[in-house]
Design a protein that fits this description.
Elements (H helix, E strand, L loop, with lengths): L2 H15 L6 H17 L4 H16 L9 H16 L15 E6 L6 H14 L4 E5 L7 H12 L2 E3 L11 H15 L3 E5 L8 H14 L3 E7 L5 H13 L3 E5 L13 H5 L3 E5 L7 E3 L2 H8 L5 H11 L2 H13 L4 H13 L3 H6 L6 H4 L6 H11 L3 H5 L6 H11 L3 H21 L11 H16 L42
Parallel strand pairs: 1-4, 1-5, 2-3, 2-4, 5-6, 6-7
Antiparallel strand pairs: 7-8
């Protein structure tokens, strides 16, 4: 979502970092570029104005850090201010000591409330909680059925007063009934999905306010579509005036819109972004960290989120065993496929690459096809168990058979095998695998010298024995004064300083 903004901001700041001195004119020029980049990203005008003023005040006002150059200092200030407008610190959800913890979701129709409710329930389960979903959206056709379908995939119960599709009822009574059921059933989290409208109106606000009074939520989250731009600001202000919103859930953050809502809502409403929906799957839902998002926007990656994703997917013992096999040189194509499957569980490959620090703009903006993992998996699964363990035995006829079985070409099979071999060699070389260390010391040097003489001439090097024909040097040049290249440095008995 922030690709264009990231390119503009990182390019502008990259030009500043190499400068040894920063004049006020240089700061103004950079801020003009930053201001234009934010406006093009559809960030609220008032937010942009305050952001630029704060950066200018801190940059020109003499804020100095001894370890940073002036250009790096401006980059740090921009990063700090981005964190500030995104909410300063993450919202840590505290569960009520007397359950259930009640969470009310509000927002416009189409913002993704129902899906966000299911994703939030899944997140609560990952925290060791036992949630209950309440389908209080009795206006939209099949809204409750959609919630039930999503809830079945994560094994969560749904309470609702709606019967058949289109059966309208009282949403306030439905929410109150869900709260009573949660207490009776021993559920410790209650998530209430409310109705939305195409636009803010008095009827919507009255209904949501009555539901809030009935269930007395511990948290009221406003669900905002990150793709709607500055319209999200007016919506957030209206809901906050009625409900006193505690936090914001941003949906569709994986979209290709300009992302202005994410940089505007928290600043205008004065409430932090609590969660972000970063994909279509139920698990594509994470707590929002302003510092990590600011780092992503500036093209500096997001290592912590990447580590957390890996920790959720990879089993420690399995990962350690795979690493050990890689070090020992026994890493097979079966292990390779297992790693690809784990990588796919971490989410969209494009988003994973964007979290890696030090990635160039060209690589970060390159479209990565997730289907390549499926293609690689199909190729490996078309091999015999012996071929997966010893891929070096795969010849032209075997490649043709594997290609036919996986629906690919022989060139694709060869390319995968080449990449796998290079990866195994590279990792083995990094760990010292396959490289025989020469023993140090004079005795070892003499031993190597003697062995070389026997291998070349069949006799010891003493007594005039030669490893090359008479009248020629080892380099093929006429015999004469030896050159540096002719000297067998390993055979010399040298006493080096300090040894």
């Amino acid at each position: 979502m922030f690709d264009t903004l990231t390119d503009r901001l990182s390019g502008t700041l990259r030009g500043l970092r190499g400068r040894g001195r920063m004049r006020p004119a240089d700061v103004d020029e950079a801020l003009a570029e930053i201001r234009l980049a934010l406006l093009e990203a559809d960030v609220n005008v008032a937010v942009v104005r305050r952001f630029v003023e704060r950066v200018r005040e801190r940059s020109v006002g003499g804020e100095v850090t001894a370890s940073l150059t002036p250009g790096q200092q401006v980059t740090k200030i921009v990063n700090d201010e981005l964190i500030d407008i995104l909410g300063t610190s993450p919202l840590n959800v505290q569960f009520a000591p007397k359950p259930p913890t009640v969470v009310l979701l509000a927002g416009l129709q189409g913002s993704g409330k129902t899906t966000a409710a299911a994703k939030l329930a899944q997140w609560c389960k990952s925290q060791g909680r036992n949630p209950l979903l309440v389908g209080a959206d009795l206006q939209r056709p099949a809204a409750v059925e959609q919630l039930r379908t999503l809830a079945r995939s994560i094994d969560v119960e749904v309470w609702s007063a709606a019967g058949e599709v289109g059966d309208a009822g009282d949403p306030v009574a439905c929410a109150a009934g869900g709260l009573a059921h949660a207490r009776q059933a021993g559920r410790d989290v209650l998530i209430v999905d409310t109705a939305g409208r195409l636009a803010v109106d008095a009827e919507l606000m009255t209904e949501v306010a009555r539901i809030s009074d009935a269930v007395e939520p511990h948290y009221t989250f406003l669900v905002v579509d990150a793709m709607v731009g500055q319209d999200a600001v007016a919506t957030a202000e209206a809901f906050h005036a009625t409900l006193e919103v505690d936090g914001i859930i941003l949906t569709k953050l994986d979209g290709d819109a300009r992302g202005g809502a994410a940089l505007s809502v928290a600043e205008v409403v004065g409430r932090p972004v609590a969660f972000a929906s970063v994909g279509e799957k139920i698990d594509d839902f994470e707590q929002f960290h302003p510092d990590r998002m600011a780092s992503r926007i500036l093209g500096m990656g997001d290592v912590m989120t990447l580590i957390e994703k890996a920790e959720r997917v990879y089993e420690q013992e399995e990962a350690e065993a795979a690493a050990q096999r890689l070090v020992e040189g026994t890493f097979t194509l079966d292990d390779f496929v297992d790693q690809l499957r784990q990588l796919r569980k971490m989410g969209n490959l494009q988003s994973i690459v964007s979290m890696m620090p030090g990635i160039s703009d060209q690589v970060r903006n390159t479209e990565i096809d997730d289907d390549r993992i499926a293609t690689a998996e199909a190729i490996v699964l078309s091999m015999t168990p012996t071929e997966r363990v010893s891929p070096e035995i795969i010849d032209a006829s075997r490649r043709a058979r594997i290609a036919a079985g996986s629906g690919t070409s022989s060139a694709q099979v060869s390319n995968l095998l080449k990449q796998f071999t290079q990866m195994r060699k590279m990792m083995g070389g990094m760990m010292g695998v396959g490289s025989k260390r020469r023993p140090a010391g004079r005795k070892a040097a003499r031993k190597r010298s003697k062995g070389a003489g026997r291998a070349a001439g069949g006799s010891r090097t003493g007594g005039g024995g030669r490893a090359t024909p008479k009248g020629a040097s080892r380099t093929g040049k006429p015999a004469g004064k030896p050159s540096v290249a002719d000297i067998d440095w390993d055979a010399l008995d040298l006493k080096l300083p300090g040894r």
